[in-house]
Amino acid sequence: MGVFFVNLAEKALEKLAHHEQLCEERLRRLDEKIDAAHKDIASNRTAVFALYPFIFGAVVFAQWIQ
User: Fold this and answer.
1) SS (HEC) of the chain
2) Which long-range contacts (CB under 8 A, 24 or more apart) does 11-18 make?
3) How far, CA to CA in Å, does 9 sit from each of 1, 16, 31, 44, 46?
4) Could you give the dihedral angle defined by the CA atoms of residues 17, 19, 22 and 26, in that order, rounded to the nearest 10 degrees?
5) C-alpha atoms less than 13 angstroms from C-alpha of 62 in its C-beta half-sphere
6) Predicted confidence (pLDDT) per residue in 24-61, tens digit
7) Rounded to an integer, what distance in angstroms lies between the CA atom of residue 41 and that of residue 64?
C-alpha cells in the first residue's frame, strides 16, 4: 500500500513540475506581449499628439461655419 502512495506522490510531483513549466512559458509570453505593446504605445504617442491640432482646428472650423 505504501508503494502505491509513493508512486502517486511521484506522479503528482511530475505533473506539478510540468504545470510550473507551462506557467513559466505563459508568463514569459505575456511579458513579451506587454513589452511589445508598451513599445507600440510609446512610438505612437507622438502621432496621437500630432492629431490634437487637427481636431482642434476641425472644431474651430465647424464653429466658424455656423
Assistant:
1) CHHHHHHHHHHHHHHHHHHHHHHHHHHHHHHHHHHHHHHHHHHHHHHHHHHHHHHHHHHHHHHHHC
2) none
3) 13, 10, 32, 52, 56
4) -130
5) 6
6) 999 999 999 988 888 877 777 777 788 888 999 999 99
7) 34
Sequence letter at residue 24: E
Domain boundaries defined on the chain: 1-66
| C-alpha cell, 56 | 482642434
Phi then psi dihedrals of residue 3, to 5 deg: -65, -35
pLDDT digits (tens, 9 = 90+) for 52-63: 889 999 999 999
The amino acid at residue 10 is: E
